[in-house]
């Protein structure tokens, strides 16, 4: 972590716990730093605390314990309207009785800006979201995607330093959603404002983010770039939540040698205790099909689905482990095949390893 005082850091949490009246804490001792101008995604299952983090940053609620920093200053008690932060809500929260112009102008009117200045800022914000010429439309005359853009224009019109987006794409159909993902990412780059985006959709998180924070049960499980998290998940939860994976129980015999599915395999991991129990992850695209007897694992094909770019093949080994394979090669249900993989394809995960310990271990490998 860079620290709240680092000039590039815009927002930091230190030991933040949030407990609503009488309940179990929904955020447990959360610490992180976010840098200016990046696209962050908070990713996790329903109820893990994503929206609570946004509400704390926006100033809609205060931490029970711990501190929130903005540019190195504690802002725990700074009211929402005094923060350089705007929110785009899931349902957009537009005013149905106001036209597009007035929806975007709303915050500026409250601040009592001059009419000429309001006009200039609103038109610029609408240009930014490709809605120039729509000023006088009523909200009910706008499509779902266009309403989304009005909500974003309203959030950027007074140039906040941070924009919070709480599942803003979840109401859109798949095609529009994909288009808006590209548009939002592009918009963030052009504006250079820090975006903090909430989703429970892992593909969306991988596609859009500079950095992802994976949350579960009020704890940040892992943070990093999409490739870091996909390639080196810290534990079973992250491996399972991000992409499809094969996760089996194993044992680290010694440095560079791991045992699972009743066999020993060369791997790239070191520095664990001899015979330490571990979880093993191998991604489906890292498994290659061989002729029977020529692979590292001998399996039988249970199901096969054609997915357009690859076949999705489910197999079982003699030890009862199931293996999911993505392959351009077809296999027959019931057929015996071999599976092979590189030592680098084996990801070894220790139990209860902290992010700091995990990062140190990976650094030692390189
Ligand atoms: N005002 C509140 N009072 C009491 N409990 C709350 C309040 N707001 C949220 N919670 C609880 O806190 C937990 C975390 O909620 P939060 O909305 O942060 O999760 P989330 O990850 O955003 O979930 P979702 O994806 O479903 O929106 C949930 O169990 C929720 O019921």
TrEMBL record:
Residue span(s) of domain ABC transporter: 11-242
Gene Ontology molecular functions: ATP binding
Domain of life, per lineage: Bacteria
Keywords from the UniProt entry: ATP-binding, Cell membrane, Membrane, Nucleotide-binding, Translocase, Transport
Gene3D superfamilies: 2.40.50.100, P-loop containing nucleotide triphosphate hydrolases
UniProt xrefs under InterPro entries: AAA+_ATPase, ABC_SmlMolc_Importer, ABC_transporter-like_ATP-bd, ABC_transporter-like_CS, Mo/tungstate-bd_C_term_dom, P-loop_NTPase, PotA_ATP-bd, Transp-assoc_OB_typ2
This protein's name: ABC transporter ATP-binding protein
